Hints:
Elements: H1 11-30, E1 34-38, E2 49-51, E3 55-59, E4 62-66, E5 74-79, E6 94-102, E7 108-115, E8 122-128, E9 131-137, E10 142-149, E11 154-163, E12 167-172, E13 175-180, E14 195-201, E15 208-218
Antiparallel strand pairs: 1-15, 2-5, 3-4, 4-15, 5-14, 6-11, 6-15, 7-8, 7-14, 8-9, 9-10, 11-12, 12-13
Amino acid sequence: MGKMFLRGMLASEHAATVHNLIPNLQLLYAVDGIFFNTWFESLDQCPPVVTGSGTVTIVEAGVRLSTGTTISSLASIMREPLYPIVPFTWAKKRRFKTKVEVYAITNQEIYIVTGWYGTGRHVGFKVVDNILYGTVADGTTEATVALVTLTGTTIMLLEAIFTPGVKCEFYVDGTLRGTLTTNLPSGTDVADVLFYLRMTNTAAEDKRLWLNQLMMIQEP
């Protein structure tokens, strides 16, 4: 988990990318920034939490969350380092980015966030039935903004850019779709949860979520 995203690239094809990115990543760490990237090679450091018929499985395409057909089943994984070198905080700018495939458009609730879910502090995305929302919460209240309507199995590039105390912007496939300025997280509570993926079904139907890569950056 959490390998540098240059892993697996061919040097002959990406020499310029390597040359440009390595100094930037070194600088990020040198000034107390945080860079996390995963291809979901393993679940060793983010053991699944499931209930009912829920499952979390590593597959060739990355990681698959499935609720199975038992109503109110849960499939979830998260990553929460205990002893980071650089402290996690909501007082610094944060970028959260991933690409997902949502399998269904009814009877589901999905969180794709950094932080917690519901009213727990977080920024990121949530799907309720066929609506993709941008979501934030301050530990007491969750705020959402509708971004797009899903019409079937959908693959989306998602990015949330959080500016502390100011706003959180939500991009879908590179286009700004919504902004929230209230109920933004602050302090340090659950700021160390790099990602939390959570899926439940509200009918006796199998719902699925697929991810291949996920990235979180806390800027200096």
